[in-house]
Structures are given as structure tokens and as C-alpha cells.
Sequence to fold (312 residues):
Amino acid sequence: GVAMAAAMLASSAYAADMTVGFSQIGSESGWRAAETSVTKSEAKKRGVDLKFADAQQKQENQIKAIRTFIAQGVDAILVAPVVATGWDAVLKEAKEAEIPVVLLDRQIDAPDSLYLTAVTSDQVHEGKVAGDWLVKTVGSKACNVVELQGTTGSSPAINRKKGFEQALAGHDNVKIVKSQTGDFTRTKGKEVMESFIKSSNGGKDICALYAHNDDMAVGAIQAIKEAGLKPGTDILVVSIDAVPDIFQAMAKGEANATVELTPNMAGPAFDALEKYKKDKAAPAKWIQTESKLYTQADDPMKVYEEKKGLGY
Ligand code: AHR
Fold:
């Protein structure tokens, strides 16, 4: 009677009917905050019961959270791995417990049999797109580049550096002269840029900044302005993520280009998990998201407005 109808309704309305643990890195950037909010709303939309754990940038906290999720017997685990190495043991535990794990936005150095799939961009390609843009923009001019790297040991920091260097190869006029981590944060991006400027003739010897994310670029833009130089003109600025704030900077002429990273990693992850649960169809090991280049020519304020509604 009523109970059965209610049960049927529940099972059809909440086809997903899953409990999913999500081990998030923290909230180092605007992009990260958007990924968290998109994941929560995607879960809600699908009737997924999401257990959220913020690791405050520490791998040990992520490992603890994953162990807790296993003990709770969740149906699946999402993890955005802060660094690339050191995951084998805990992923083996999840595998033994038959809990599928989906990696979000960062890759790891471990056999792919230890996770169901990874939803990420091609981070080498992102770096290459940024580098190609710079090489094309400076032409034959000599250009000293300073680089703000992401979190040391994280796959985006490793791969975005690699891809950018690939783009510069064979263009000897464009050189990375300084490179240091800014931990993907605005504060650190500003601080490190200040030191780059100090040791580069007040910034006059710097032609371009490549930042592994927009937040560090935004911090660095502030440092450039405080040094009395014009970001976007005196020092070109190219970065990755496409967060709303970088479009505001582009609209003002203070940033030049960014490579888009969607904060919606959870949508494809839940799709894959739902399908896997329903017909045991294992997805491909890599679900690749797009990497689109935006420049000042792309109506930055319009993109800013569009982005604002998408978890930012
Ligand atoms: O792993 C994705 C990167 O992590 C984003 O580009 C950066 O903003 C974030 O902190």
C-alpha cells in the first residue's frame, strides 16, 4: 500500500540512492571553493548523501578521512588528491572493501587498478596552451618569464610546468628565469611575486608571469601594481582556472590570458558511479575535461557574469 508506493517513489526519484564520501583538499583557491560547492549541489540534485571532509591541505588528513569513509561503509569515495604520491596503501584498503574511488581534478602516481576513474583535465596540455599563447604573443622579442608554481608535489604543479616548458622549447627568446611555489594561494602568490620583483631590477627585467592558477596571478597582479608597474602591459600575465576574478582583471587590462578548468568534476564522477552501480559498467580510467583559452578579446565581463552563477 502506502509504504510500498513511498518506497517505489523514493527509489525512482532518488535513482542514485548512494552515500558518497568526499575528501576535499581544502580551500586554497576560488576554483577549489567552487568545486566544493558544485559537488555539494550535484549531490543534492541527485539525491546522493554526501559526507564532506576538508583536509586543510594535508595528505594525512585525507588518508584518515578515506579510512573513516571505509569504516562507515559508504557506497563510493571521491578524493581530490593534494599530492601525487603516497596513495597506494589506503586505496588498496578501499579496494578490499569493494568501495569504488573516483579521483577528482588531480592525478596520482599509482596503478590505475586502485581507482575506478579519474575526472581531470589534461594538465600538461593546460601548461602547453598557456605557453603557446605566450610564445605567440611575444613573437621574436626577448622575454624573461617568472613562474609561480602550484602546491609542490601536486599533479597540476608538476604537469603545468612540464607543458609550459614544452611550449617554450625551441623558442630561445622566451625563458623562465625564476620559478617558485606559491601554493595555489593569493597571499603566497603576492608574496613570492614581491620577491621576484625585488630581485629583477624592481620588476623591469620581467616580461611575463606564468601562474599555475588564477588566484596566485591575482595576488601577483597586486604586487606588480604596488611596485609601480602595469600588470598586463609591463608584465604580461597568463594563468589557469578561469575564475571570475581573473575576468575582472582581464577587463581592466591587468591580466592577459587564462585556461579554463571546469569546477564541475562531480557531475561526470556521479554519472560514472551511477552507471557503474546500475550495470557494473566500468568507465574509462580517465574522464577528461576541456581546457579552453580565454583572452582579453573574449568579452571578459560577459564571461565574468556567466561564471558567477556556476558555483563561484
Ligand atoms: O587541481 C586543480 C587546481 O587546484 C586548480 O587549478 C587550483 O586553483 C586548485 O587549487
About this structure: Residues 28-29, 31-32, 105-106, 156, 184, 213, 215, 240-241, 261 surround alpha-L-arabinofuranose (CB under 6 Å).
